[in-house]
Specification:
By secondary structure, the protein is of the alpha+beta class. Helices cover about 30% and strands about 35% of the residues. A five-stranded antiparallel beta sheet has the order 1-7-2-4-5, covered by helices on one side.
């Protein structure tokens, strides 16, 4: 089953998509298998991270900004945010593959999926594919 979704992001935002993915999984009825999530954007990424302390997401955004700063010396200059967003997106990745067991995503007890926005605000698309095990 394939589900296509949209989400509105804020500049440098990181909205959770965990609840939406879990809703699609429940709707699918799949008990064992895998779930693939993909975002087709070059200035956004997916992250599996902890929600135990939301400040950890702020730390993640801050560290990415320190290590891959927005600057005007990039060769790709749609905008400095766009250019650094491309690098961040490639490093974090645009897909996540998660196992499904007993009708639930296999994640750590405090983990969830976030869409990391490196430009924006934007309306971002993402695709969820759920496949039952044979």
């Amino acid at each position: 089953m394939i589900y296509r979704r949209q989400i509105r992001t804020a500049f440098n935002g990181y909205p959770s998509i965990t609840e939406d993915v879990n809703g699609c999984l429940a709707e699918s009825g799949v008990q064992e298998g895998y779930c693939c999530i993909m975002i087709p954007h070059s200035t956004a990424a997916l992250a599996i991270t902890s929600f135990w302390d939301p400040r950890g997401l702020d730390d993640l955004v801050d560290e990415l900004g320190r290590n891959i700063p927005t600057r005007v010396s990039y060769r790709n200059q749609t905008s400095p945010y766009d250019a650094s967003g491309h690098v961040k997106s490639v490093l974090l990745g645009s897909t996540a593959m998660l196992p499904i067991h007993n009708g639930k995503l296999v994640l750590g007890s405090s983990q969830g999926l976030v869409l990391m926005e490196f430009d924006g605000p934007r309306t971002r698309n993402y695709t969820i594919m759920i496949q039952a095990a044979d």
